[in-house]
Write a structure and sequence with these properties.
The protein has helices at 2-19, 56-71, 156-168, 183-186, 205-215, 376-379; strands spanning 25-26, 28-29, 32-33, 35-36, 41-45, 74-78, 93-98, 108-114, 125-134, 171-172, 224-227, 229-232, 239-242, 256-259, 264-268, 270-273, 279-289, 307-316, 320-322, 325-329, 339-348, 364-373. With 381 residues, it is α/β, with parallel strands linked by helices. The longest helix is centred in the first third of the chain and has 18 residues, at 2-19. GO terms for molecular function: metallopeptidase activity. Its EC number is 3.4.24.-.
Length: 381
């Protein structure tokens, strides 16, 4: 059975690899990507909006900047005594929270100034970007199991901050598995995390590819990650959905799925790779008793945790995220009459070149639906 599953997974993996088109976007001038002129970019974090260093709003800025700093040349400074309005032509790259009326009802808006792209030898650059994010969004970290579907969703402010700051250094919209997806209807993915405190709003492989193209120098970041979301593209759609979706119907599974041993559960798993090289690893789907205590219910990549439902080899191309369908069979040894969480844990293989895995906290995620396996009496086994 293990071998059969492995083969099935590889076939899916290859098909998905072949169809993965890089969708990251950026502007070009005479064939050259438009990149920021300042090197490094220095953001000015407006103290009228971010007076206190400990607020969720400030954490959203820190999350966005630390994401960007990993892949792009950026720095930041906190302002002091700033006015509550900003100037779009003062050569200062500002970050500010605004009322929605200021940005035409958008969740966020980045005002950019470019040098000209008129003559064949012009090289257009981003001279200044001012990032504006709607002040009423939720700036807490999201629960990564559930994709945000409405403006008021938990974590939407953190996502909009990172998305807009992506625009500020030259990224345009993507149709792929990316933070740069366009708008509320397309939704954006969260990244898995091994603990409730970890960052869950991260640049994906596709976003990193765009940044690498903008800056024009290759630099490897050996990191794989998992997510509880995937891009549903069937029937002409292109929408981010939770991996806890029935692959046959495209409909979300119930919050708790009642099952018996030998029943088969179909779902998606999502694995991404921010490296410029193909990366491989072992993916494990397991179920474990939910206690209601966030730290005890945290996800784990360790092989001995919970009841294993399936294990596969994953092979993910450069700067790619892929989401194969998997079917797992409920074993009779699984705990009965208790709510179980369903998790994906990833153990990246050791790389033959380059550095070891950069982050391990993004190698595990809990899916949106849990399991409830009925008693031996009820199931007849
Ligand atoms: Ca400015
Ligand atoms: Ca990782
Ligand atoms: Zn946008």
């Amino acid at each position: 059975m293990r071998i059969l599953r492995l083969v099935e997974f590889c076939v899916i993996a290859l098909a998905m690899l072949g169809s993965n088109v890089f969708a990251a976007g950026w502007n070009t001038c005479n064939g050259t990507p438009v990149s920021p002129q300042p090197y490094p970019v220095k953001y000015h974090v407006n103290s009228c909006s971010f007076a206190d260093h400990t607020t969720p709003e400030t954490n959203a800025v820190v999350n966005a900047i630390s994401n960007l700093m990993t892949f792009a040349a950026v720095r930041w400074e906190f302002g002091q005594g700033d006015p509550c309005s900003i100037n779009h032509s003062d050569a200062q790259w500002d970050i500010i929270l605004v009322d929605k009326s200021v940005i035409d009802g958008n969740l966020g808006l980045t005002q950019k100034r470019f040098s000209q792209c008129f003559w064949p030898d012009d090289e257009s650059r981003v001279l200044e970007s001012d990032v504006m994010v709607r002040n009423t969004l939720d700036f807490d970290m999201p629960n990564e199991s559930y994709v945000g579907t409405v403006e008021t969703s938990q974590g939407m402010g953190v996502a909009v901050m990172l998305h807009e700051m992506g625009h500020s250094i030259g990224l345009e919209h993507s149709t792929s598995f990316a933070m740069m997806r366009n708008g509320m209807a397309a939704r954006v993915p969260w990244t898995g995390s091994s603990g409730p405190e970890a960052f869950k709003v991260m640049l994906t492989a596709d976003d990193v590819y765009g940044i690498r193209r903008i800056y024009g120098y290759p630099q490897d970041y050996p990191n794989m990650y998992v997510s509880a979301q995937y891009v549903e593209t069937r029937s002409g759609q292109n929408v981010m959905q939770n991996t806890s979706t029935d692959p046959d119907t495209g409909q979300a599974h119930r919050t708790v799925i009642a099952m018996c041993p030998d029943d088969m559960l179909g779902m998606f798993i999502t694995v991404g790779n921010q490296s410029q090289f193909t990366s491989t690893g072992t993916v494990r789907v397991y179920a474990d008793i939910l206690t209601g205590d966030a730290s005890r219910d945290a996800c784990s990549s360790r092989a001995e945790v919970g009841t294993e439902l399936g294990q596969w080899s994953a092979r993910v191309g450069p700067y790619s995220t892929f989401s194969p369908v998997v079917y797992v069979t409920i074993p009779s040894s699984i705990p009965r009459n208790v709510k179980l969480g369903v998790y994906t844990g990833l153990v990246p293989d050791k790389r033959t070149h380059g550095d070891p895995e950069r982050r391990t906290y993004d190698d595990c995620v809990r899916h949106a639906s849990g399991l409830f396996v009925k008693s031996v009496d009820q199931c007849g086994k």
